[in-house]
Amino acid sequence: MNNVLKFKNKKANVAAQDEIYNFAYLDENTKRMIRRALIKALCIPGYQVPFSSREMPMPYGWGTGGVQVTSSCLTTDDVLKVIDQGADDTTNAVSIRNFFKKTANIETTETTGDASIIQTRHRIPEKQLNEKQILVYQVPIPEPLAFLEPRYQETKKMHALSEYGIMHVKLYEDITKNGHIETAYAYPVKTNDRYIMDPSPIPKFDNPKMNNNPAIQLFGAGREQRIYAIPPYTEVTSLDFEDYPFDPSKAPHKCSICGSNDSFLDEIITDDDGNRSFICSDTNYCNQRMKDK
Amino acid sequence: MEPILSVQNLNKYYGDQVGCKNMNMTLYPGEVVGVVGESGSGKTTFINSISGNLNPDSGKILINKDNEIINFLEISESLKRLLIRTELAFVHQNPRDGLRLDISAGGNISERLMSIGHRNYGNIRQTIFKWLDKVEIDKSRVDDFPRTFSGGMLQRLQIAKNLVTSPKIIFMDEPTGGLDVSVQAKILDLLRKLVRELNLSVVIVSHDLAVIRLLADKIIVMKNGEAVESGLCDQVLDDPQHSYTQLLVSSVLQV
Fold this sequence. Notes:
The complex is a heterodimer. Helices cover 30% and strands 17% of the residues of chain A. By secondary structure, chain A is of the alpha/beta class.
């Protein structure tokens, strides 16, 4: 059957949605199951909802969770943007964008403002998101307590009873060893003053952007089979100590392309003599600034 | 004076096997109760049942918290765990069971503090130093990992970790088991000092009559899961009534 369909497509050279797949790859029942998990996650901000993750046509760790969430949210009217470490043109971003172009035949964009769904790996776009947008994060390890308490049953209990002392022990160890909180990415946050949540490995520079964001923020972890979410305008605070307050921190440089002073920067080694330069990690933000000049 | 902890008709079975049967105990503030008996007599089952580590089958455990009587077996899981973190402390025989070995000594001591909401690094650090001093661990070891500590130091660290939130009731399961005699003496000395200084109420389990005699005011002798004799420590040990207690007392090696 599949071969026949494939043949038919080839013959007609269909540019539209590849007919051998359901819209956006996943079947409708799976999408319904994931949407239910998403709704539950939105109702309990920061709570990890288990879901029955599917095999996707890409390896675990490449965004299978994010892709399943995006697939369940997509409608034919959506405009999709995919970024990987802030960039639209890296392998992962290009592949996932092409995947949905092929299976859903939707419009894609690189412009943050034009997108209705943005799937991201490890960054939040510099441009302020709005109420009509959904930000989908790819999450490798959803459990913020995983490295402190290996027993899953126990971490579940700790979340249920808000037993979060151990989380600060981690920060305590950081300060003791390094004189400051060393954790620079996947910096733990408290959502809606209740659940402690792993924001996925975004730099802590992006943490403040999660707070009170008008967009819907969805998190999908494919291998770990967990979905969690932050509804619009939800309080998200980064954990800290009174005398060691949270510091988003930023490289003390300017972007050497657009000159931006307040965006997150990638460090690039430019030659064998150790010379380096810094450029915006958000490629769209950088290009837009150059265009405006 | 009201007892701070009272145990009434406590039973714990493992299938058909008796863990402990019809156990009663009252613990007054500032008092130390010793539980003795041979291996398999149900001492550990008893202390685990009354400290929240095990769920007993029937009986009552009443804890007096600021003149409010709490029925420990009927409260919610969250309140129970809060009590275990704040009002109660458990010192394990093997300190490795009660410590996180991949977290520094200071981090271990600070965990209970942070779990009840302390959020000032400087103050937490001060409290850690105060407690290291109390249990006679050199301040310079504060950032070292417990795995670099000796057996005696580990046990003292575990005691500090447990006492840092000033719990009212301390449970100790063979706190000096597996330590050599001079280290044992040091730990016992320390425990006796802390009990007096902080007016702690303690339930201590040991097979070692010398340990119990040194620390305890009252004693419960257990055999086959039941209390065969109980009373004032000196009285029971000097004038044992039950044949098993007599055997136990006479079995102590004299040096």
